[in-house]
Amino acid sequence: MKKILLLNPPTPAVERPSIPPLGIAYIASFLREKNIDVDIVDLDLERDKMDIISDYVLTKNPDVVGISGLTIQMENVYKIAEAIKKASGKIIIVAGGAHPSSLPEQTLKEGKDCIDIVVVGEGELTLLDLARDMPWEDIPGIIFIKNNQIHKNQYRNPISDLNSMPFPARDLLKMERYRGWGPMKHPPSTHLIASRGCPFDCIFCSEKAVFGRNHRRRDPERVVDEIEHLINEYGVKEISFYDDLFTLKKDWVISVCEKILQRGLKIDWKALSRVDTVDSDMLKYMKKSGCWIVFYGFESGSQNILDTIQKKQTVEQNVHAAELAKKSGIEIFGFFMLGNAGETEETVIQTIKLARKIKPKYSQFTIVRPDPGSDLYNSHMQEINEKGISWSEYYAFPKDTSKIPVVGTKMTVEELLYFRQLALKCMSRKALLKLLIRTVLTFNFDQLKRIFKIVF
Ligand code: B12
Ligand code: SF4
Questions:
Q1: Is pLDDT of 15 > 80?
Q2: What CATH number is attached to the domain comprising 18?
Q3: Residues 292 and 198 in one domain
Q4: N or C: which end of the chain has fewer CB within 10 A?
Q5: Buried residues in 118-129 as b, exposed as e (16+ CB within 10 A)
Q6: How far from 66 is each of 169, 210, 252, CA to CA, in Å?
Q7: Which helix (H) or strand (E) holds 238?
Q8: How far apart are CA 222 and CA 13, in angstroms?
Q9: Which atom of ligand 2 is nearest to the CA of 205?
Q10: 3-state secondary structure of 272
């Protein structure tokens, strides 16, 4: 049996992580249940350990170090792997998570002999095989280098019965130091994953690289057990369901709501949703059991763009789902995208008009970024590589905005950034009035025309 240490590297763009790394916490609890010696360090929280990472790891004496990586964390993944490999060539270094799952071979190559194995997809079963000394050739879901050759093993299917998984090992994390993300009604707040996978195939989305397209749901009883555990152990007052798609199956959602109500749990909660998966019945139960806000990916006000990105929803459904939520007394967090393939000034204006019509309590206008693992990335890989953007700048709002990898539209980064600002201002009456006055005073007629198109 091997001793395992799991690490979450620092995220360059954020000062402090808001949410515990549940991926490695899931792996840890699963391994622990099988009597494997396992520990976790969230270096995103303990950044001072980065400088002494190799010494620190040696004191823990693991046989295997598993490092988790979102795209934005990859340079830190490589730094950690290199430091540890230099300190001890004996330690097996494994990379897993969203980015290595999306670009496994490239991760091995960029790891320059310091990363021994890349795990593709869910890590629980694969790391168990490794911890139990199974020959690498026989472990599904990994790729590795041996004798200077890359070996790609067969794909490992996602876990079919999520109920067989213990709750994530939050006890190995400093839970009190994560503040939660996004709008919060009642801190302390934390997140929970009740289902995995999403059957849709939006071209900009990379979720399928880890969890696949089969929507697997935990038993509502187990989900609510975990909520109760979070209330009792951590004093949590608010839960975020950050599943890929929480509202796919109506009966299941209602069953979760009913169980929250039956147990008399006083908890505020929120969930990621899709506009074509909700109805008034479902939303009514959600509201009654404590849901105060839903996150909808409205994405665009142009049907052409929605079709191009294979969102498989209509502008009318966007409006209807927003009305339903509001009628049920649930607030809306709206995600809108600017810079999709085929985007023009006209379609951007349609999106801002839609956002104004819907009036979400919170809205986010993101400039589209082709994430590794998405079809958008795959179809523009060469163009993206030519831009030479480092992984640490590969996120929605990099400091150097010229590093935003816009693809598939004739609109420039500058234009998209301009419209993003315009959109944000158009969402607030006060900001819009100020902008109008400034636009008139500076005789900016082009902008005046745009504002009129958006407002009327
Ligand atoms: C909650 C969340 C957030 C939170 C907190 C992020 C965090 N640090 O945990 C917030 C809202 C702050 C956030 C921000 C961002 N996020 Co986010 N987020 C999520 C979300 C919805 C859930 C994460 C989660 O808990 N998953 C549940 C666990 C169980 O899954 P998992 O972590 O993938 O772990 C499994 C496997 O990946 C694997 N695994 C993971 N680590 C390891 C390690 C080893 C060694 C092994 C073997 C296996 C392994 O095994 C795990 C169990 O099966 C995911 C989508 C998703 N469904 O995962 C997106 C997601 C992770 N986010 C994403 C992105 C892009 C971002 C941002 C960069 C967005 C931006 N602003 O540009 C920022 C980054 C800032 C940051 N890192 O904090 C992408 C990542 C894509 C990529 N290639 O990197 C995802 C996948 C969503 C998407 N498809 O767009 N995010
Ligand atoms: S964007 Fe949402 S609906 Fe589309 S594939 Fe990704 S998780 Fe599924």
A1: no
A2: 3.40.50.280
A3: yes
A4: C
A5: bbbbbbbbbbbb
A6: 15, 16, 34
A7: strand 238-241
A8: 35
A9: 6
A10: strand
381: which residues sit within 8 A by CB, 6+ positions away?
none
Query: Dihedral sign, CA of 108, 114, 116, 117?
Result: negative
Query: How much distance in Å is there from the Cα of 71 to the middle of ligand 1?
Result: 9
Residue 112 has pLDDT above 90, yes or no: no
Give the Å distance between the CA of 318 and the centre of ligand 2.
15
CA distance 439 to 32: 62
Q: Quick one: pLDDT at residue 286?
A: 98
Cα torsion at 260, 333, 210, 379 (round to 10°)?
Answer: 160
Condensed to tens digits (0 to 9), the pLDDT of residues 183-238 reads: 999 999 999 999 999 999 999 999 999 999 999 999 999 999 999 999 999 999 99
CA of 21 relative to ligand 1 center, distance in Å: 8
Name the band, by pLDDT with cuts 50, 70 and 90, for residue 64: very high
* Total length of the chain: 456
pLDDT confidence of residue 330: 98
Q: Could you tell me if residue 171 is inside a domain?
A: no
- Would the pTM count as exceeding 0.90? yes
Is residue 231 in some structural domain? Answer: yes
Bond prior to 188 in cis (omega within 30° of 0) = yes
CA nearest ligand 1 atom 44, residue: 96
What's the CA-to-centroid distance between 71 and ligand 2, angstroms? 18
Nearest-CA residue for ligand 2 atom 3 is 200
Q: Is the pLDDT of residue 399 over 90?
A: no
- Residue 448's CATH number: 3.20.20.70
